[in-house]
Amino acid sequence: MTERATESDLGNVFVSNYPPYSRWEPDQVPALHEVLGAAPGPEPPDLGLYLHIPFCRKRCKFCYFRVYTDKNSKEVERYLDGLAREIESYAAQPYLAGRPLHFVYFGGGTPSFISPKQLLGLVVRMKDAFSWSELDEVAFECEPGTLTEAKVHAIKDIGVTRLSLGLEHMNDAILRENGRAHTTKEIHRCMPWIRDAAFQQVNVDLIAGMLGETWDLWRDTVQQTIDLDPDSITVYQMELPYNTVYAKKILDGDDDAPLFASWQTRRDWHAYAFEEFAKAGFEPSSAYTVKKKGRGARFTYRDALWRGADMMATGVSSFGHLRGVHYQNTSSWDAYLETLERGSFPIDRALETSPKERLIRETILQLKLGHLDPSYFRDKFGVELTDEFGSAFSELERDRMATIHSDTIRLTQQGLLQVDSLLPAFYEPQNRGVAYV
Ligand code: SF4
Q1: How close is the Cα of 69 to the center of ligand 1, in Å?
Q2: Among 12, 59, 210, which residue has the most ligand 1 atoms within 8 Å of its CB, making it the best to mutate?
Q3: Closest CA relative to residue 354, chosen from 329, 314, 324
Q4: Per-residue pLDDT of the chain (437 residues; tens, 9 = 90+)
């Protein structure tokens, strides 16, 4: 069931965008400035804002995000000032000025790392820059051990509607082994505060296949997660991206390179969790997330992004998309802050997408929901999906990964559990096998 991971196991399977990041280039950044400098026109897409809060108490051994574990409160405050300046600069651009926000996503890193006072100070400046009156969702990621009762209430008071708690697992030995900072005691300590605060929606995250995972431990984690009674549960399958502690051990050929469950076992654990969640009254809302029936749980950030919404990226290393132009901020702490303090945008690379690339992007991202609505693509792109991607869909049907009808395309359970590995079949030839970094 478990095997020693090798170099061939390394890399991301999870697909978060198209075309791959390695195609984004510094010489395309002017395309973004052109977008920012023009009026939005009569019916611009919904507008969102992503904030990257890159601080964590400790670095998880499987983490590949740009995070810092050594910043003092002065440095955190300088960073938050940079974030606010960045948002204020966006608000002054003709393409964005006066437009209301549709969704806000506080991601990380660990947004709940910052203090209530720091959070409030940031939000006051955010609300001065952009109207929150038409907001559909404010999502906020939390790490259990960083929460206090006062902080949970501060998070609620700023207007967060969807609190997402990173449980990852419900066994302390597994959490410790994988380098997580929090304990199960901290999970049980913060859940009553979260319930008392009455957020519109509480999501919890799990990871299937962490180092040391067994069937018994996973069954127990699934049951304990159900007992916490969240509104939605998101399950990711463990991956081994290159720039992680685990990957380094594997590449160094260490004798104690980690033992991981096979992809098939990770998929079996994922499938088991979804079956148990279904018995407990949850229904799938994507390949990764189930939601409790009757509670109206939704995920505006995901749905808007997967339908081509505009999203400003703020924070070091973060990714955005405005009127068809992808872009990413610099990954350097100093460059990020110094550029903002000079009054410029800290953007490192961009890509002006073609209509075909936008069609592929929405097709593969929406396929992660488990179904596609061909009429949406007819209306928006003027194409018949099954004509446009005939061979990719035939392959999926032949391999029993999907069922295809003129009014709906639906992944089977088998297809849903490995959706990310199916998506490259939709890519243009020059983007297949290209690194996603
Ligand atoms: S909490 Fe999340 S962002 Fe922070 S180190 Fe762990 S995986 Fe990375």
Answers
A1: 10
A2: 59
A3: 324
A4: 566 666 656 667 888 999 999 999 999 999 999 999 999 999 999 999 999 999 999 999 989 888 999 999 999 999 999 999 999 999 999 999 999 999 999 999 999 999 999 999 999 999 999 999 999 999 999 999 999 999 999 999 999 999 999 999 999 999 999 999 999 999 999 999 999 999 999 999 999 999 999 999 999 999 999 999 999 999 999 988 777 777 777 777 776 777 788 888 999 999 999 999 999 999 999 999 999 999 999 999 999 999 999 999 999 999 999 999 999 999 999 999 999 999 999 999 999 999 999 999 999 999 999 999 999 999 999 999 999 999 999 999 999 999 998 899 999 999 999 999 999 999 999 898 776 66
Q: How many C-beta neighbours within 10 Å does residue 391 have?
A: 9
- CA–centroid distance, residue 117 to ligand 1 (Å): 23
The residue whose CA is least distant from atom 7 of ligand 1 is 63
Count of beta carbons in the 10 Å neighbourhood of residue 294: 8
Atom 2 (ligand 1): residue with closest C-alpha?
109
Count other C-beta atoms under 10 Å from residue 200's C-beta.
16
Query: How would DSSP label each residue in 170-207?
Result: S-HHHHHHTT-S--HHHHHHHHHHHHHHT-SEEEEEEE
Ligand 1 interacting residues, C-beta cut-off 6 A = 56, 59-60, 63, 65, 67, 108-110, 143
Closest C-alpha among 117, 109, 182 to residue 140: 109
Q: Which of 347, 364, 330 is nearest to 18 (CA)?
A: 364
CB 309 within 8 A of CB 50: no
Q: Which two tokens stand for residue 107?
A: 């991601």
Report if pTM > 0.90. Answer: yes
DSSP string across 247-305: HHHHHTT-TTPPEEE-HHHHHHHHHHHHHHHHHTTEEESSSSEEEETTTT---HHHHHH
Distance CA 201, CA 199 (A): 5
Domains and CATH numbers, the chain: 2-304 (3.80.30.20), 354-437 (1.10.10.920)
The single residue listed with the structure tokens 């720091």 is 118
